[in-house]
Write a structure and sequence with these properties.
The complex is a heterodimer.
Chain A: E1 2-6, E2 9-18, H1 23-33, E3 40-51, H2 53-68, E4 72-76, H3 80-89, E5 96-97
Parallel strand pairs in A: 2-3, 3-4, 4-5
Antiparallel strand pairs in A: 1-2
Helix pairs in contact in A: 1-2
Chain B: H1 6-28, H2 32-46, H3 51-55, H4 64-70, H5 77-87, E1 101-104, E2 114-117, H6 119-141, E3 149-152, E4 160-162, E5 165-168, H7 170-177, H8 190-193, H9 201-211, E6 215-222, H10 223-246, H11 257-266, H12 271-282, H13 289-293, E7 299-303, H14 309-320, E8 325-327, E9 331-332, E10 335-336, E11 338-340, E12 347-350, E13 356-361, E14 381-387, E15 395-407, E16 410-418, E17 422-423, E18 430-431, H15 432-446, E19 449-458, E20 465-473, H16 481-495, H17 498-504, E21 512-516, H18 520-530, H19 547-555
Parallel strand pairs in B: 1-5, 3-6, 6-7, 7-8, 20-21
Antiparallel strand pairs in B: 1-2, 4-5, 9-10, 11-12, 12-16, 13-14, 14-15, 15-16, 17-18, 19-20
Helix pairs in contact in B: 1-6, 9-10, 10-12, 10-14, 15-16
Classes of the chains: A alpha/beta, B alpha/beta.
């Protein structure tokens, strides 16, 4: 996982599995860099292979934060198998997928 | 600036109110029928000139028999038009007591509704849900709890106003009306109990709660919230301890600049408490941790019957051990129907001095066949029908209860389930408590713990079948879904004897079980909140009612647990 900060934007590149083991780690990293000025977040899932409920909660948690400050969050480069998870859970209707 | 008077002085005030409410109920407990009869005749007399009263000939009602004969059962839809007109300024349509607030229903059975509540009903609600517990606990545990603070996780959120009248969940209304925000009584500041949308209130509840060693009560609406708080502490204790040590709020914690500035100006470094907490947390989390954090903790207060009983068990197994629970009685957006009278007892007694009660035997639909408060039979199962000081008449609560005995002459009752929530594939009607029992037995026999479960009544397969989705905590590699299914199928025939022939004749196919990924139930809750649901109103899914729920749980099955 890597996080890059550019002005008011965070880009979070998820690699491999985002599951119950890796999700708390990623959440802690995000919290470290999620300063008050951040109003734009991108989750880049190009290298992600799997996302579990715990991983989805990290993404939903960031969306909740962005919604509260009227910021934006997008999820990009979604592999087909993961896209199915967003669709079936109904999260595709409330998150911005590209 | 006035000096803080400490928790006892403020708690004494609340106790006085609680004692008054408890004593008022006890006064009528020898002859609740008489009080209930006087109450309904007063309500009918008061409201005979309302539009609803005229339409239902209230002026012809002089007895309970008249009332039962003349007034039909009602549901919210019977009032929807009147509520709509009230919102546009008309008065006395169904109640002369006025509208103090509109309570948003949880929408368990559909879209959220605006349930009107009068000032009188709200006062009763506060008396019996917030003040009366003081009286009950003092009688059972003594008054040591009054020297400490309450860690209250109750929040008022999603508040809006319709023509100047407040609209939100009844628990939110309660928090706003109740002076819990006073620092003498509660650990968390008002910024946590009535949070701005961007405030991370979960952090604030945990942080302020941990700072205070002298906590004697954990107070919540649903027990799930206490469980979530402990999980949050378990995941974030280093950050929280750092903040307590330095008297700061970490920059990663979201809140407005204004709130942060105000809170940080009031915080003081507490290095000794931080060190004490770190030592506790470094030893690990187990079911003694709550008493290590708060040595004087006396009781936990919250809804822990019905759907929530599994959460209380989980809480006790993992965090609070044998700390007693005062289970909230049966409350709804329409009022506080029952209150607890003992610790660790899921039974409760009706507030017979504030609501007129009727009890309709389950599977009976004739409005004249209801029983009154002194006519119910021990062991009998009924739907509660209420008439309130908010203009609801013979209102079907759709809550099923069982009469378990008597406290003085008041019937004691146990909440069973929502009547509209059952699995009914071929007329067998298996209700939520029976479904839960089957999972509990499987968990006990196979040695696993679970967060929650739901059942999909699968009528598309041939034959139809029960498909269970269970969120198992840390499933062991040896666990097999087929083993769980076998036990559940056996137990279904115990809890619902009709299932024996259903299975034998293959009218219902073999039970299917899937294990859900951990955190699935929390994700479902997060999703609902993101979609605009109020966190205090959300209840876990027990029976899958629609395609969206089915798709959600089906995709989040844990593939590593073998069938």
């Amino acid at each position: 996982m890597s996080i890059t900060k550019n002005a008011n934007k965070l880009t979070i590149a998820v690699e491999g599995k985002l599951d119950r083991t890796s999700a708390p780690e990623l959440e802690a990293k995000i919290n470290e860099v999620m300063t008050e000025d951040i109003n734009e977040v991108e989750f880049d899932l190009a290298k992600a292979v799997y996302i579990s409920s715990a991983g989805l909660r990290v993404i939903v948690g960031v969306q909740k934060k962005m919604s509260k400050i009227e910021g934006t969050m997008v999820i990009t480069n979604i592999p087909e198998l993961i896209l199915e998870i967003f669709t079936e859970t109904g999260l595709s209707e409330i998150l911005t997928l590209r | 600036m006035s000096e803080s008077v400490g928790p006892r002085a403020k708690n004494e005030e609340l106790l006085v109110r609680g004692e008054k409410a408890w004593n008022a109920l006890m006064e009528v407990s020898d002859n609740p029928r008489s009080t209930n009869e006087s109450l309904i005749l007063k309500i009918i007399q008061d409201n005979k000139d309302t539009e609803y009263g005229k339409a239902h000939n209230f002026s012809d009602i002089h007895s309970i028999e008249d009332f039962k004969r003349i007034v039909p059962f009602s549901v919210f839809d019977d009032y929807a038009d009147l509520v709509f007109r009230e919102l546009h300024g008309e008065k006395d349509l169904h109640s002369v007591y006025g509208v103090n607030q509109y309570n948003r229903s949880s929408g368990t059975m559909g879209n959220p509704k605006k349930i009107p509540m009068s000032k009188t009903s709200m006062e009763y609600f506060l008396d019996y849900t917030q003040a009366c517990p003081y009286s009950v606990v003092k009688r059972l545990l003594g008054d040591a709890f009054m020297d400490g603070k309450i860690l209250s996780i109750c929040e008022a959120s999603g508040i809006s106003y319709v023509n100047g009248i407040r609209y939100c969940g009844v628990s939110g209304q309660m928090v706003q009306d109740w002076n819990y925000q006073l620092p003498e009584v509660c650990t968390a500041p008002g910024e946590a109990s009535v949070p701005e949308p961007e405030t991370n209130s979960r952090y604030l509840h945990a942080r302020y709660g941990l700072s205070e060693k002298n906590v004697t009560c954990l107070d919540t609406k649903f027990m799930t919230f206490v469980l979530e708080m402990f999980k949050y502490i378990s995941d974030n204790w280093q950050l929280i301890c750092d903040d307590i040590e330095k008297g700061t709020i970490d920059a990663s914690i979201r809140m407005s600049d204004e709130v942060r500035k105000k809170l940080e100006s009031e915080l003081k470094p507490m290095p000794e408490r931080a060190q004490e907490l770190r030592k506790i947390f470094e030893e690990g989390f187990d079911n003694t941790i709550a008493k290590k954090i708060w040595p004087d903790l006396q009781f936990i207060h919250g809804v822990s019957t019905g759907t929530f009983s599994a959460y209380l068990k989980h809480l006790r197994d993992d965090y609070t051990g044998n700390v007693p629970a005062l289970m909230r009685g049966i409350t709804a957006s329409e009022g506080a129907f029952t209150i607890p009278f003992e610790l660790d007892n899921p039974n409760s007694i009706p507030t017979a001095n504030t609501i007129f009660f009727e009890f309709l035997p389950l599977d009976e639909d004739d409005p004249t066949k209801t029983l009154l408060i002194d006519e119910v039979q021990e062991g009998g199962e009924y739907e509660m029908i209420v008439t309130t000081f908010s203009g609801l008449y013979r209102y079907r609560t759709r809550d099923a209860i069982r009469i378990t005995g008597h406290y003085r002459n008041l019937p004691t009752m146990e909440y069973l389930y929502r009547i509209d929530q059952c699995v009914n594939l071929t007329g067998e009607k298996t209700y939520e408590p029976a479904l839960r029992k089957t999972v509990d037995v499987a968990a006990q026999e196979l040695g696993f713990k679970y967060t929650d479960f739901c059942v999909h009544p699968d009528s598309d397969s041939a034959p139809s079948k029960y498909v269970y989705y269970i969120e198992v905590i840390d499933p062991q590699p040896t666990l097999r879904c087929s083993a769980i299914a076998e036990i559940i199928q056996r137990e279904l025939m115990v809890v619902n004897p009709l299932m024996v022939t259903k299975f034998e004749r293959n009218l219902i196919g073999p039970v299917e079980v899937h294990v859900l990924q951990e955190d699935t139930y929390l994700l479902y809750r997060d999703k609902q909140i993101l979609m605009g649901g109020a966190s205090t109103q959300l209840k876990p899914v027990k029976i899958i009612m629609n395609e969206a729920q089915l798709r959600f749980f089906r995709i989040l099955v844990e593939k590593e647990v073998a069938q």
